[in-house]
Amino acid sequence: MAGMNDQLRILSVEDDPELQQMLSLTLQGQGYELHYAFTGREGYEKVLLLNPDLILVDMMLPQLNGPEMINLVKENKTARDIPIIVMTAFSADAKFIESAIRPLGILEYLRKPVDIDELIRLIKRVLQGRRARTAPIQRLRKGSVRLDPKYRSVWIDDKLVATLAPKRFSVIEALVENRGEVSCAELLKKIWSGDAEGKNNLEKTVQRLREDLGPDAAQRIRTTVDGYELIG
What residue ranges define each of the domains in the chain, with the CATH number in brackets? Predict the structure, then answer.
């Protein structure tokens, strides 16, 4: 999910501009790509837009508070597996904090004022744990087009464009895997096991795939003499 420069992307959702500035200087200095949101609503919208590798969330936020934003993230199929670290000024009683955040599915938190060294250690541990869990999941990219097979989702310029039905995802996956065109014969063999009736199915599937991608992204799937090509 990292950007094209392979930096891990962190979204900080915090309404304190001084803390945001400190996080920016510290985390960018550690090599992370840092993005900001100052309200819960803006934070949720940026989660969907940026698809970050990690989210830092303050519990007390305007518009949507921390728990409300986290619940929205957890209800979204494409975002619910993104790890979240809560930053809170709640009571110093660890049991009280844990009882407040565990119903949200959050296990990691930091008390305010934030200890920067502790934050860096926690971020590294959480990201390493996530990398280990997602290592078997292949993510495919061709130019600005990126696929996530786990959710059968298509991202263009790091923006979610569509979540596809299985056959449609198989078609775009085959197009992403190849530098140039993919012939109809290759697609029929790979996806429809060479079924003689598959040609009509292929044409309908490509048509529906283009509809799913929308008018702008649909133009990236070019019809060639022998098949199709994806322009990344």
Answer: 9-134 (3.40.50.2300), 140-230 (1.10.10.10)
